[in-house]
Design brief:
Layout: H1 3-21, E1 29-34, H2 76-83, H3 101-106, H4 119-125, H5 130-148, H6 150-158, E2 160-165, H7 168-176, H8 187-207, E3 212-216, H9 225-231, H10 240-263, E4 268-272, H11 275-283, H12 332-346
Parallel strand pairs: 1-2, 2-3, 3-4
Helix pairs in contact: 1-12, 2-12, 5-6, 8-10
InterPro entries: GDSL, GDSL_lipolytic_enzyme, SGNH_hydro_sf, SGNH_plant_lipase-like
Pfam family, one: Lipase_GDSL
Signal peptide: 1-21
């Protein structure tokens, strides 16, 4: 076993022990909404170019199979589901045709790569909008009731860990790289527009029975390899303006969620700061065993993602030394570090919520 593999083996043991030793509640299920950071394969079943169901994606996943996850291996929901003893082989996509009753009981993923809170984002990319994800969730609830009865279905949803991760595509597609929304909104106005959409989305989840919700903030968008290529292709430094925008949005979101929680009795709605842990990895890579921070593992690492990251693309020899697998999406190694933060800092806070 390689040294880095040892590290993640012991990190997994540490996280399991953390869950055992801390007052982390049991969850009935895991339900996932959002974009490619959490899409476990729904885009495989729709007509879109935004797919990750081909090599080299999934090269380090179970049986080295590309599943539609935009990474070399597991995503945060997969790791969490395993640690919480809900799933052994990751969270299945809702659109997967061969789902069993137990898959519905322990949770599914509704996320779609290329999606965002702004409906324009998903219409540009031809993927499943956040609005449509809610419609699929309603459909899922009816199937859940059919399998387990109405009372048990309500219990499952109430006790589920709900993850919402979206927003980056809205800024990249509509403001930075394709300035569609820049014509009608200032950055401040567009942030507020998206947060209003997010607020509506979370309220809908609550109305449908969800009570334990984690909402992810934005990563340092200016440090994504594809953004460096677009703005500083030679010097390859993080775009501070885009990072500053991410921080401003995150501050607004962090302030919004407690107010939203106060409006929804019995809910616990937590802000997940993914900006800080990712930037920490970028600023101090060797402390965490990383070597490459400015490009992805696939191809040149400068532009390749989705349809441009193909089986013909050369791939780095050791993905665990890379923060990004393609020019946008993190490696499994990076996702393990984000999961460590969630387990230590956020999950214990759900212990104050009424049990299912």
């Amino acid at each position: 076993m390689a040294p880095k593999s040892f590290f993640f083996f012991f990190l997994a043991i540490f996280l399991c022990n953390t869950i055992t030793s801390q007052s982390i509640p049991k969850f009935t299920s895991i339900l996932v909404f959002g974009d490619s950071t959490v899409d476990t394969g729904n885009n495989n079943y729709i007509f879109t170019l935004f797919k990750g169901n081909h090599p080299p994606y999934g090269k380090d996943y179970y049986n080295h199979i590309p599943t539609g996850r935009f990474s070399n291996g597991k995503l945060v929901p997969d790791i969490l589901a395993f640690l919480l003893k809900l799933k052994k082989y990751g969270v299945p996509p809702y659109l997967q045709p061969n789902l069993m009753a137990n898959d519905f009981k322990t949770g599914v993923c509704f996320a779609s790569a290329g999606s965002g809170y702004d409906d324009l984002t998903s219409s540009i990319s031809g993927v499943i909008s956040m609005r449509k994800q809610l419609e699929y969730f309603k459909e899922y609830l009816e199937k859940l009731k059919g399998y387990f009865g109405e009372k048990e279905a309500e219990k499952i949803v109430k006790g589920a860990l709900v993850i919402v991760s979206s927003g980056s595509n809205d800024f990249i597609f509509n403001f930075y790289d394709i300035p569609t929304r820049r014509v009608e909104f200032s950055m401040n106005e567009y942030q507020d527009f998206l947060l209003n959409k997010l607020q509506f989305f979370v309220k809908e989840l609550y109305e449908l029975g969800c009570r334990k919700i984690i909402v992810s903030g934005l990563p340092p968008i200016g440090c994504l390899p594809i953004q460096m290529t677009a703005k500083y292709p030679l010097h390859r430094t993080c775009i501070e303006k885009e990072n500053s925008d991410s921080q401003c949005y995150n501050q607004k979101l962090e302030k919004l969620l407690p107010n939203l929680q106060a409006q929804l009795p019995g809910s616990k709605i937590l802000y997940a700061d993914i900006y800080t842990p990712i930037l920490d990895l970028i600023n101090n890579p060797r402390e965490y065993g990383f070597e490459e921070i400015k490009k992805g593992c696939c191809g040149t690492g400068l532009l390749e993602a989705g349809p441009l990251c193909t089986r013909k693309s050369p791939v780095c020899t050791d993905t665990s030394q890379y923060i990004f697998f393609d020019s946008i999406h993190p490696t499994e190694s990076t996702y393990y570090h984000i999961t460590e933060y969630l387990v230590k800092e956020l999950l214990p806070k759900f212990s104050t919520v009424d049990s299912f």
